[in-house]
Prior knowledge:
Layout: H1 5-21, H2 26-40, H3 47-56, H4 63-76, H5 79-91, H6 97-109, H7 116-133, H8 138-150, H9 159-167, H10 173-201, H11 215-237, H12 243-261, H13 267-301, H14 303-314, H15 318-333, H16 338-356, H17 360-374, H18 382-391, H19 399-418, H20 421-429
Helix pairs in contact: 1-2, 1-13, 2-13, 3-13, 4-7, 4-12, 4-13, 5-6, 5-11, 6-7, 6-8, 6-10, 7-8, 7-18, 8-18, 8-19, 9-16, 10-17, 10-19, 10-20, 11-12, 13-16, 14-16, 15-16, 15-17, 16-17, 17-19
Amino acid sequence: MNLDYDTLSIMLFALFVGLLAAGVPLAVTLGLAGTAVVALADLGLSSVPLNVYSSVSKYPLLAIPMFVLAGIIFERAGIAGSMVRLASAIVGPRRGGLAVTTILVAMVLGGISGSGPAASSAVGAVMIPQMLRAGYPRGYAASVVAAGASTDILIPPSIAFVIYSMLVPAAGVPALFAAGLLPGVLAGVALMAGAVWLARAGRLGNEQDLPRPPFWKSLREAIWALMAPVIILGSLRTGVVTPTEAAVLAVTYGLLVGVLVYKSLNWRAIYEVLVESCEVSAVILTILALASVFAVASNALGTFEHMAAFLVRSVSSETAMLLAINVILLLAGMFIDGISIFFIFLPLFLPIMAHFGWDPVWFGVLMTLNIALGQFHPPVGLNLVVTCKLANASMESTTRWAFALALFMLAVLLLCTFVPAVSLWLPKALGY
């Protein structure tokens, strides 16, 4: 079949949208659409399995299953529970206090797992029952946990930054980790402010009647958990380990603490942790592998280069272009997971980034901030899927709470969009 590249590009996206609308899993949709166009364009079907293999055989990607495993180990070891007690002792019994505690603990876990869904599971298992007992609506509890866990892909270490660095070699993982720290903290603070405002405006919860945990006892119990991000990030900063080795270090530390200190991990628990982490990692790596087929097809056709050239001609203002990119990513985040967003949209954005001379590290933080927002707002926020299950709440019941919290985090996104120094000052200070 002799078809021109413009027609094939239209077919590529028509197949993608059609399969997605038909309910085909996203990874399969990307793989099938890409393979069909590779066959029609006579690009060589033998390249499909080769690209699938090469896309997941990269050394830096070893960090992904390791950070997933570390997050699940810390959840099962009871480390999240010790951090909750310490945060409760610091915040105290006041309206909205449990929400602040939840987000604080999620931010600390961001320095361990680097995965929003993993943190949603770990923090939600401990905090959602407490919030429900304190009288908070199920939708509010699910929304707060999901929003707090979204900061985990910004606060290093971050699986999202590892994937972005693989796709954009000019942005190193250490520089991205440093650049994401302050935006991640600011996002957490904004979410705390939003959660407290919602609780007080709606007079939600009654935790002011709950006892305050003793501070020093809680600190002693949580010291091992607090040391985890210090050890992981400290070893990265000093150059003792690479990001991939830091992920292995996180797993080793979690196992030692769970087995020897907290004594909460036995052989059965370790087996269950390994099975769960394999399932989660397999989903992520399958999307990575099949998205590469879609990327090969679109790159061969020049699809994204043509689209980028059209956008540059249509939107000459840098400010307007940044706003357009944010809107595209926010809309995509409502329907597509973060990993796929990188593979689908980065080929479109890279020529635009080069045209305007944008810093690739700053742009990586910008994309990840958008993806973090997408993790906790309906209809397909991955963190919300996890927390709704834990809270036994419908996705519809979270809508007003999740979108309200998203507005507070949107303020941080706009700040980082138009003041790049927010993201770039720390990597520059550290010499990255």
